[in-house]
Amino acid sequence: MSVIAHLHLSSPFILAPLAGYSDLPFRLLCRHFGAGLCFSEMISCHGLVYEQRKTLAMLASVPAERPVAYQLFGADPAVMAKAADMLNRFSPDLVDINMGCPVKKVTKKGAGAALMAAPDLAAEIIREVVRCSEVPVTVKFRRGVNHRSLTYLDFAKMAEDCGAKALTLHGRTWSQGFTGKADWQCIAEVKKAVSVPVIGNGDVQSHQQAVMRRESSGCDGIMIGRGALGNPWIFGSAGRPQFNAEIAAGALLHLQLMEQYIAVDRFLAAIKNHMGRYFTGLAGSTVIRRRIYQCAGFPELRACLESLASTAES
Ligand SMILES: Cc1cc2nc3c(=O)[nH]c(=O)nc-3n(C[C@H](O)[C@H](O)[C@H](O)COP(=O)(O)O)c2cc1C
Questions:
Q1: By three-state DSSP, how is residue 20 classified?
Q2: CATH architecture of 2-234
Q3: Of 199, 177, 157, whose CA–CA distance to 69 is shortest?
């Protein structure tokens, strides 16, 4: 049991917010395989305030998902405040603020990791979201702007002072994007420097590694992003199954959740991308992935996964 921002979590291992991936079906799947908490994809404060259909669709949740954690992004404190107020209607368990996304589309508007270069504005945003949210607010940030500006300790203390109830630190700088290796020393330092729970993030590729990172950094939680794609078993101690049929059964469960909760015909390409990831690195994966990518529609894709899941072990 782990306590993050007053939430009692069944596990300290947490699914990262992943734009384009951490939708409701994937979050439910990760919860099924043992994740203690799953963050939504980043949600634009402007999209929310203007009630854009696509943005509102990102708020879909079901009771089985709880705890529900929505992540907001934006650079205007007033709009972020309004968005936080609107989120109250959707009864989340917590609201996270994205201060780590390095993608140009986000940073050129001053949001995401660009807020690491504007700590006063970041502080104002955190204070405003905390003021308007009825639930605990958390902040996800990076090690700094670049190697010459490693501001994580000041940023963490600022976020805590502004009312954040937990902090997630991705051990890379803004300028690193997703290159190089995540630094976990900074995560251990932040854990020692603040009194709110700290979640460490960056490059965790297996359950054993997650356990080891938690022990060595002293963190309260470990957030896993890319390592969970095609491998939701990463959240459980048994780890990824050995046999293709078991892996196909997991992929099929994912597919069934997608069928239940999203318009599968509209998202076939994205679904195939998700499915292909399950088989990366397995014996016969090239052939399996080709079969997946050649499926012309969702029923054919489902039949393909069903046949893989029922195949005697190869
Ligand atoms: C495809 C993709 C989408 C992402 N979307 C988000 C996002 O919406 N919000 C966010 O804070 N971080 C986002 N991230 C960053 C991850 O949450 C995480 O911090 C990063 O991938 C490092 O963790 P990992 O090595 O376990 O993947 C994204 C990363 C990837 C690869």
A1: coil
A2: Alpha-Beta Barrel (3.20)
A3: 199
226 lines ligand 1 (CB under 6 A): yes
Residue 293's CB is within 10 A of a number of other CB atoms, namely 13
Does residue 45 carry a catalytic annotation? no
State which ligand 1 atom lies nearest to the alpha carbon of 98.
11
Give the separation between CA 152 and CA 186, rounded to whole angstroms: 7
Task: Indicate which residue's Cα is closest to atom 18 of ligand 1.
Answer: 225
By alpha-carbon position, which residue is closest to atom 11 of ligand 1? 98
Cα-based distances in Å from 225 to 29, 30, 58, 234: 14, 11, 18, 10
Report residue 160 as tokens.
């805590």
- Ligand 1 close to Cβ of residue 19 (< 6 A): yes
Cα distances (Å, whole numbers) of residue 9 to 23, 34, 66, 113, 288: 20, 10, 10, 27, 36
Q: Token pair of 124, please?
A: 């104002």
> pLDDT tens digits for the chain (314 residues)?
688 888 999 999 999 999 999 999 999 999 999 999 999 999 999 999 999 999 999 999 999 999 999 999 999 999 999 999 999 999 999 999 999 999 999 999 999 999 999 999 999 999 999 999 999 999 999 999 999 999 999 999 999 999 999 999 999 999 999 999 999 999 999 999 999 999 999 999 999 999 999 999 999 999 999 999 999 999 999 999 988 889 999 999 999 999 999 999 889 999 999 999 999 888 888 999 999 999 999 999 999 999 988 875 54
Cα of 303 from ligand 1 centre, angstroms = 31
